[in-house]
Design goal:
- The protein has four domains: 208 residues, Galactose-binding domain-like (Jelly Rolls), CATH 2.60.120.260; 71 residues, Sandwich (Immunoglobulin-like); 63 residues, Immunoglobulin-like (Sandwich), CATH 2.60.40; 89 residues, Immunoglobulin-like.
- It contains no helices and 38 strands.
- It is mainly beta.
- It is 0% helix and 47% strand.
- The N terminus is likely disordered.
- It has a six-stranded antiparallel beta sheet, with no helix packed on it. Strands 5-6-14-8-12-11 form a six-stranded antiparallel beta sheet, with no helix packed on it. Strands 15-21-20-17-18 form a five-stranded mixed beta sheet, with no helix packed on it.
- A hairpin with a 6-residue loop joins strand 17 and strand 18.
Length: 464
């Protein structure tokens, strides 16, 4: 078999809708803009034959209605909204020889073989007429340039011709001859129409003699990507085929010799391409084989930067992928700015997350906020930590990954008046020294450590 790419529109089972995560979407094909834009609408009459007279029309209730909310159909009890927040209703339950239609033009990509999958629900009176005069819902797919019908692209739904209709039990004054078909699925092959524009048109009509009504609901969802990713940190995931087919068979795409299940969903753990053979109910198209590829999860590169910060001080974190979003799991411990600058708020541990987007899993680092003072020196590779803070008599200065140097430590009061100066000899890249601060009174002071390679300033508290 030749692999087939797929327009996997979000699909529906009998009476059930499924919400999904779309990645590609022709404009408002799914009505999820909450408007009637980008479709063409028609409103007219039906006569014996049936003969439809359908001039274009502005949409609007009661005959061309955008549906929303959690309501259900009065005769069938199924949701008036299928997938997402909006669907569309064609027609109404009064009889005036009415007919309504809506169409959408889809540009088929030039390369690949695709299927168009749609979903609908129908409410029809069974008038007992000949099939040509029964209330109906029609679905037609044509090449928009030539008007030629696509193979298996014309389907007529009537109570006497399509299985799955249910007799309505709506109480009087509802008519006793109403039947309904809940949300269900059909498919149309677009093979050979690459680079063409295909029009799909839905038509609802009363009976040709004007005494019995027929109306329907339609919906389509965005195109799914033709693959799936293992969720972050997961060893398996659920793969879903379009809902609403009579039977399913999952196979390996290379030999079709390995079977992975015969239900609409399977649990998959091996990254590879899977084939899904789907057999529709009678009258809903031909058997289709679609393909989906399970890809391993993709992880954002690790965060770089210090993992320790002092209260009221900052460190800068970076990631190899720019333009992502930073977040803190516990903002009472530390906060992080949109550019990755972490500020210590209170002592403790906090997890800083970075979401690069584009399907990549988030990465994170654990930051420890200490009561010590810390800073990155001017060459960007080393750190200095001062502790304890508050200090009483001795203040320890610890450094890591610094160039050997001689620095000056200056402690000043809040007015800037220098109170203590001490030399700090950095004769090894990592080390520790102490200065005596016992002569300072209790209070808040400014401390600076400066050399050719270091430019540090912060607050120091003395507590007796």
């Amino acid at each position: 078999m030749k692999p087939k790419n797929v327009f996997l529109f979000s699909l529906l089972s009998m009476g059930t809708c499924l919400t999904s995560n779309a990645q590609l979407c022709p404009p408002n094909m799914d009505f999820e803009l909450g408007t009637t834009a980008d479709w063409t609408y028609y409103k007219g009459t039906v006569a014996t034959g049936p003969v439809f007279t359908l001039p274009t029309s502005l949409p609007g209730p009661p005959r061309l209605t955008l549906t929303s909310g959690t309501g259900t159909d009065v005769y069938g009890g199924f949701p008036v909204v299928c997938d997402g927040s909006y669907s569309f209703k064609l027609g109404k339950d009064t009889v005036l020889y009415c007919a309504e239609a809506a169409s959408y033009n889809i540009h088929v990509p030039a390369t690949g073989v695709y299927n168009l999958v749609y979903h609908y629900a129908a409410v029809l009176e069974d008038a007992g007429h000949t099939p040509s005069n029964q209330p109906r819902l029609e679905i037609n797919a044509t090449d928009s340039a030539t008007g030629t019908a696509l193979p298996s692209g014309s389907i007529t739904i009537m109570t006497s011709t399509v299985p799955g209709f249910i007799h309505s039990t709506a109480p009087p004054p509802a008519p006793s001859d109403v039947y309904y078909k809940p949300w269900t699925t059909g498919s149309i092959s677009l093979a050979g129409y690459g680079g063409h524009t295909v029009m799909i048109k839905f038509i609802a009509g009363d009976c040709g003699t004007g005494g019995h009504f027929g109306y329907g609901y339609i919906d389509m969802n965005c195109i799914f990507s033709r693959g799936a990713l293992l969720p972050c940190k997961a060893t398996s995931t659920t793969l879903e085929a379009p809902i609403g087919y009579a039977s399913y068979s999952w196979k390996d795409s290379l030999t079709f010799g390995t079977s992975y299940g015969t239900t609409q969903t399977i649990t998959a753990s091996t990254p590879q391409t899977y084939a899904i053979i789907m057999t529709p109910y009678a009258g809903h198209g031909s058997t289709d084989t679609m393909y989906t590829t399970l890809l391993p999860s993709m992880t954002t590169p690790p965060i770089t930067g210090s993992t320790t910060v002092g209260v009221s001080h900052t460190i800068s974190l970076t990631d190899a992928i720019t333009g992502g979003t930073w977040s803190s799991s516990t903002t009472t411990i530390a906060t992080v700015s949109p550019s990755g600058v972490v500020t210590g708020v209170a002592t403790g541990s906090d997890t800083i997350f970075y979401a690069a987007g584009g399907g990549l899993c988030d990465t994170y680092t654990v930051i420890t906020v200490t009561s010590t003072l810390g800073a990155i020196n001017t060459n960007g590779t080393g750190t200095i930590n001062l502790f304890p803070n508050p200090a009483k008599s001795l203040l320890s200065i610890k450094w890591e990954n610094l160039e050997t140097d001689n620095a000056n430590v200056v402690i000043s009061d809040v007015t800037g008046r220098e109170l203590l100066r001490s030399a700090l000899e950095i004769n090894e890249t990592s080390g520790q020294s102490q200065i005596n601060v016992s002569a300072l009174n209790e209070g808040i002071y400014m401390i600076t450590i400066k050399s050719d390679n270091i430019n540090y300033s912060g607050k120091l508290r003395i507590a007796k």
